[in-house]
Design brief:
Number of strands: 22
Distance between the termini: 43 Å
Shape: globular
Radius of gyration: 24 Å
Strand content: 15-25%
Helix content: 25-40%
CATH architecture of the largest domain: 3-Layer(aba) Sandwich
Number of helices: 24
CATH topology of the largest domain: Rossmann fold
Strand order of the largest sheet: 1-6-7-8-9-14-15
Number of domains: 3
CATH class of the largest domain: Alpha Beta
Oligomer: single chain
Length: about 600
Amino acid sequence: MALRGLTPGGGIPARGAAARSSTPRGGDGIRWFGGAIAPYAPAPRPATADVLWLGPETWTVGTPVRQARDGDGRRLAVFGPCGATDTQLVRLVRSPDLREFDAAASAWSGSYALLLDDGAGSVSLWADAAGSCPLYVAEVGGALVWASSSLALASLLGSRPDTAWLAAHLAHPTAWAAGRSAWTGVKQVPPGHRWTAPRDGLTFSTPYWRPVSSTWPEAVDRLRLDLSDGVLIRVSGRAASSDLSGGLDSSTLAAYAAQCGPVLGVTFHPKGREYGGDVSHARNVASAFPSIRHRFMALGREHLPFTDLEALPLTDEPAPSAVTIAQLCHQFALLAEEGVSVHLTGDGGDTLFMPPPVHLADLARSGRLLRLARDAQAWGRLYRSSPWPVVAAAWNAPDRLAGGELAKPWLTHQATVVAASVISPETGVDGLGYADRHLLGEARYVGRTAASENQLAATYGIEMHNPFTDARVLETVLSVPASERWSARRYKPLLSDAVTGLLPDAVVGRGSKGLFAVDHHHGLRANQAIVLELADGRLADLGLVRPAVLRSLLRRAVLGVEVPWGLLEPLFGAELWLRASDIATEQVRWEGKP
């Protein structure tokens, strides 16, 4: 199958088969898709759904879908942005070999899920390998219902938040809690798995995806193609915008979007500071591409973290941007005012291209001691510390290399025990080294939570996309050895090589990107009473959080003491999400609800 991404509608359907695409109307505030298998009773259906086919029912609510059918009753649906041509989809639906579908699930650019109705009573779903197009299943009233939104299924079931999932989320946010989601009774299909509901028998999941291997030059070329095609299929012919922070990730997406047509580049900056640092890098990128219309967004006290927290909509699970919702809403309002329909963000780039030194554990286990010593010394020079603790961790405590053993004293013993009871290793990835397993878990977490972030944008009528969370991009990064991906001397070496010649040399050659932890301190001071009240909220009622410890930490932060914001943000996001969860049953209106 060709890998080149094309806009939907290319190709001519073969005789005896048909392929078509559609962009259905929206509804219920979020875009999603799903279906129901109900052989013995009427199936529940979302009130605002566009039904694609019956027996079993399949529908979409605002999500673009492409379909292909053959003459024997086989039906294929592709949900989400996908670079396949119509001809390729028609060829695929006619194949009797499920391995062809397994390959197709990550063969094209984009973030998409496949659905096959084989015409003989069996249905199969392919959950994308990167987790950015998550799929969920639930049982209700004798029907098996699947969907891309766990919130939609929670609304159908009348579910409450899953306390065990929340404990795992707080203790190890990127870990996999098998058979669960943020809502009770709703299960997530594991990323990279094919879920099958046979005509007779129980449903089952089968892993279909494994990383491939390639040389560095091959990976550079493939990454360049994956990213350019991933942007093309999303923005071509549409009113598009992109984050343009001045960093390598957002600059790459803005540049590729600019090659497709006009694009609005959005740069944040503190009020009164429109030059220097990241802002100057963003100006360099905008100047290099005349089709970028540069828009600056000045940030003041009204955009600080922990401001306007009541504006946070309910999503599938706690959104990473929960505490910065004031800034995010201001950005979405600006984009809506500009008439933007699709927005690109660089989320996931840091995870893929700037990993911690977890590969040292693989070097230790493979006996590559000289390389282990060299990389540990390079790490020590970079952070001006001794390399020996890193070497010791490589042998004895690999999780410490990835920050997995950082203390969270605000969690109760109950929370850690419950989390440990539900967390399980990723399935279907046996044989991967420690660094590759770590990257896969981190990337899938970013992909899944990005889907919740995209639901926030949908409340403003904007499609937000994250090309760095595409399965092919992840697969390309994993195709080169972890020891080559990591560098103490070069900033994001794989991405830098891929965009050399695309971006200005000053942007490609930069060594880091600005940090904004100071904004969290300022936001905490401005909203101290509100944040302290969050510390003694529903998570504490569930026995997961020790409010006295958390309050003490926050009071120290008010005085300027450095605190681990990266660990605290998921906690506050979960608390805010819990408080909004009471309206879950009101989010999606269902017909035929048992």
